[in-house]
Design goal:
Elements: H1 2-15, H2 17-27, E1 48-52, E2 55-58, E3 63-65, H3 69-72, H4 81-93, H5 102-114, E4 120-124, H6 127-142, E5 146-150, E6 180-183, H7 188-197, E7 201-206, H8 211-214, E8 216-217, H9 222-234, E9 237-241, H10 253-257, E10 264-267, E11 278-282, H11 284-287, H12 296-302, H13 314-329, H14 332-353
Parallel strand pairs: 5-6, 5-7, 7-9, 9-10
Antiparallel strand pairs: 1-2, 2-3, 4-11, 10-11
Length: 359
Amino acid sequence: MEGFMSSIDSEYIRKHPKSAKIFEKSAVMFPDGVTHDTRFMTPFPIYVSNALGPLKWDHDGFEYVDYVSGHGALLLGHSHPAIVDAVTDQIKKGTHLGANTELEVRWGNAVKNLIPSIEKIRFHSSGTEATMMAMRLARAYTGKNKIVKFQDHFHGWHDYALAGSDGATGGIPKSTWDSMIVLPSGDMDALEDTLSRDNDIAAIITEPTGAHMGQNPLQVPEYLEKIREITDLYGVVFILDEVVTGFRLSRGGAQERFNIKPDLTTMAKILAGGLPGGAVGGKAEIVDMIQHRGEPEWDNQKRVSHNGTFNANPLCAIAGSICLELIAKEPINEMADLMANKLRDGLNETLIKMEVPGV
């Protein structure tokens, strides 16, 4: 096996001299030579020069089908012409206006039109920021401290989110996790038992379809229905992390597909049409923990502050608006489902023919 892998490495190195050359410079600049853990690979990663639709090309001229579509951010594919045109036009008008824009209103309306549970919304620069804000809003709203999450469910890379993670957690004070409760994924008995015994729980956060972007699937919609029932019973905020599933499982995400109404929803990826962007939205009374009231004690001490240099950046806002408006009026989700079924059926058929377990 070792010799087989060695021959694969040798062939890879031989075919990708330009990527190898770029990696030589990158390796002395970035840890592991990359800017995202997922892109780390040995002996070196490929370096992509351009992409269009479902395809991308590396510097050595090899063509790839991007099944993951830009880490899941590109439901419309790479370089969709409507988004390219809109972003190009906005660049000429300004990339950072340092002020409110009409584009952020358009973007917010595009989200609300697709997800009815969202009464108010705030934009961020990533999904990690969105889940961090959702937890803070829940704590401020309830006056309680603890957050429940499930083992290996991914909610970004901030300190609280990495509790119960199978990833590297160096540099995180263990005291940070004193306010986090990690339960076995999908264990509703454990959830109800925990909420019945602990009165200091502000919220539960979950991926709708299971840990690792649904790779460890759960029984839906029953799983989500039970969480909604339990959180209603104990007065706990239900945060649905739709960073991955939002606008993908259906126009309105997992909550529309499975007819679930969370208290807060976190979003990113497809939200910004391929540019950086995140958001948290939901019940107005919870999101309004950010709002000024003109009362010194509230505004200066109790209110949830929210800053961010690139919040609702105009380039992200126009890309996100165009993307969500296309999703609203075109059969994009239906097409994605058809392609997913075709891919799954093809893989299963191949496994059966080759007598490989896994169907």
